[in-house]
Design a protein that fits this description.
The chain is α/β, with parallel strands linked by helices. The protein contains 14 helices and 12 strands. It is 45% helix and 18% strand.
């Protein structure tokens, strides 16, 4: 068995859903969540965390999801020495750059993280990265045993909503959607807003945009529909009714050059063309548009897409590349 520990906050619904989807897809991993939002609960789960290490003799391998409050990094020093189990550190972002963008306190945390990352490397078996791009940014701080595990999807769940999709060109406006739990700088919502302001006539004539998520730090244009939150079911229904989806538009702010976002994988599985800053998959390149703010050009590109081929390629990727069962089984073989 492989134990997968996750240090997360309770206001991370996307991560929580992801962990549930992963746990349903395979029996090779046992997922445990340590909530960093509530101190008493954290203490109890902290004890359960250690108890789990010692009473799980069948767990030969341990993965710790790396997060911003990294007590976990210090624990890794003991795992190899005391427990003698294969231990991996999982990275989902270039967190060092994220910290540095948060002012003086953030730069101090980044410096601490840089030191800890280097210190723990001799004591762990290896590192797991969500993309080649994240690995490239953290390469100087980690060892040589590194594994790429991109995000996946709950294909049996998504498949039912995909059947609701109508693959064809709209006679009216292109229904477009941009989703995030809470929009951060690397989502690039400000880039989209500025582009709309610069070309409002073309945007209003050709597009109907819905933003889903917390936009408390942004002021949306009046001609944009905003939905603060949707349940997974309602979100999938909304996506199935759209013609175009927007993935992250500013990963370069984290020094990243490729995307492996969970939402991007779900968009592809549903057969949605994507506006993005960088391609997430070469097979889907023809159905991904690098956002340039030219809404007339984007509309022309969308209207010329081969929808039959889009349906075929997206289905193949969803079933054979992105399904969590396939992704996690491949990871288990490599550990």
């Amino acid at each position: 068995m492989i134990i997968h520990y996750n240090f997360i906050f309770s206001d991370m619904p996307g991560v929580q859903k992801k962990l549930k989807d992963m746990s349903k897809s395979t029996d090779k991993f046992h997922f445990r969540v340590i909530d960093l939002s509530d101190a008493p609960r954290f203490i109890s789960l902290f004890l359960a965390f250690w108890k789990g290490f010692f009473i799980s003799p069948t767990a030969e391998k341990i993965i710790i999801r790396h997060n911003f409050v990294d007590f976990s990094l210090l624990f890794l020093l003991l795992l190899r020495c005391v427990l003698r189990r294969k231990t991996y550190l999982e990275h989902h972002s270039n967190h060092l750059t994220e910290f540095r963008r948060r002012g003086v306190f953030g730069r101090a945390m980044s410096a601490r993280e840089t030191i800890l990352l280097r210190v723990v490397q001799p004591f762990i078996t290896g590192n797991i990265f969500v993309s080649d791009s994240v690995l490239q940014q953290l390469q100087r701080y980690v060892g040589k045993n590194n594994i790429i595990m991109e995000n996946g999807i709950n294909w049996p769940q998504v498949a039912g909503y995909r059947d609701l999709r109508k693959f064809g060109h709209t006679d009216g406006k292109i229904r477009t959607i941009f989703v995030a739990g809470k929009f951060a700088q690397w989502h690039g919502l400000d880039i989209l807003i500025n582009a709309i302001k610069d070309d409002e006539e073309a945007f209003s004539r050709k597009f109907e945009l819905t933003i889903v998520g917390d936009v408390s730090n942004y002021k949306l244009p009046e001609n944009v529909r905003h939905i603060p939150y949707l349940s997974p079911h309602d979100l999938y229904l909304c996506l199935a009714d759209c013609d175009l989806a927007i993935d992250s538009l500013a990963l370069s702010r984290l020094g990243l050059t490729t995307s492996s976002s969970l939402k991007g994988k779900e968009y592809i599985a549903l057969g949605l063309p994507i506006l993005c800053e960088s391609y997430s998959n070469d097979k889907y390149r023809a159905f991904s548009y690098l956002f340039d703010g030219d809404f007339a050009r984007i509309a022309n590109w969308h209207n010329e897409l081969d929808m039959d081929r889009l349906s075929s390629v997206s289905l193949d990727l969803a079933k054979h590349d992105y399904d969590w069962k396939i992704v996690l089984n491949k990871l288990a073989e490599r550990l």
